C-alpha cells in the first residue's frame, strides 16, 4: 500500500493543473491602474483640446449663425469588435458633413476595424476595465479628441458596442438642432439623487474619502452613456477637482461603478439647469444580473420591440438602445429600412 506522505505528494501534484484552471475564475481580475504616464498623456491632451476650443474655435449658439452645419460627434467606447457596424453604416448613410466618428478600442483586446465610415476613426486608447475609473478616462479621452478634431462638433454622443440606433440620423439631427419644442443645447444625461443604492456607491472607496469635494448630498447617479453639449464636454475635460476623488480605487467592488457617478455628479454641480436629467439611450434593467442590463437576443428582435424601445413618458423619443447580443445583427438589418429607419 502507498504510504501517507506519498499519497499527499501525489494529490498535491495533481492539484496544480486544477488550480491554474479554476483560480482565475474564482479570484477577481487584476485591477487596472491608471499609470502616471497615462495620466500625463491625458492631461496634455485635455490641455490642447481646451486651448483649441477657447482660442477662437467656432462654436454653435443657434443654427445658422456661427456654423450653418453643426455636427454630432459619435463616441464609441468598446472592448470588442463593433458587431453592429453594418447597421450604423445605414444610419450614417447620405449624411456626410453632419457627423464625426471616434472609437476608443481597448488596446489589450484584438479588435478589427469594420472599415467603411469607421475606417481611420480609432483614437489613441488605453486599457479599460469595468468597475474602475479607466472608463471615465476613456470617455474623457474621446471627448477631448472630438473637441480638438473639429470645432463644428456641437453634440457628443457616447455609445457602446452594444448600442443600436432607433431612428434615422436625420430624425436625431433635427430633434437636437431644429425641433422648436426641444430644449436647445442642453445635455442629455440621466441625473438621479434618490436611488436606494446611492449610499453604498458613495462609500465604495471608504466612508469619508469623497469629502470635502463631494458631500453625499451632492453625489449623483445616472447613465453611463450620454449626449453632451460642447460646453459641457469642455467642463468634463477641464475638471481636476472631482477627478482627484473619482479616480481613487474602490474598496467595495460590488458597489463600484465610477462612470455612472462621475459625469452626473460633475454636471449636476456645475450646471444642473443645462442638463435635461434624462438620457437618450434606452436600457432595460428588468432582470439585470451582476450590474448588467437585460441583453436582447434574436427571438426578441421584432418591430414591436423597436416601437417599445423608442417610447418615452416625456416629450422626446429614445435615440439609442442597449444591450443587444451580436447575433441580433441580421434580424435588425432585416427590418432596418421598414422599421428602424422609417420614422
TrEMBL record:
Localization terms from the record: Membrane
GO function terms (MF aspect): glycosyltransferase activity
One Pfam family here: Branch
Membrane topology: Single-pass type II membrane protein
Alphabetic keyword roster: Glycoprotein, Glycosyltransferase, Membrane, Transferase, Transmembrane, Transmembrane helix
Cellular compartments per GO CC: membrane
Predominant subcellular localization, coarse grouping: membrane
Residue stretches spanning the membrane: 6-27
Keyword Transmembrane helix: yes
Signal sequence range: none
InterPro entries in UniProt: BC10-like (IPR044174), Glyco_trans_14 (IPR003406)
PANTHER family membership: CORE-2/I-BRANCHING BETA-1,6-N-ACETYLGLUCOSAMINYLTRANSFERASE FAMILY PROTEIN-RELATED, CORE-2_I-BRANCHING BETA-1,6-N-ACETYLGLUCOSAMINYLTRANSFERASE FAMILY PROTEIN
Name the record gives this protein: Glycosyl transferase, family 14
Species this protein is from: Handroanthus impetiginosus
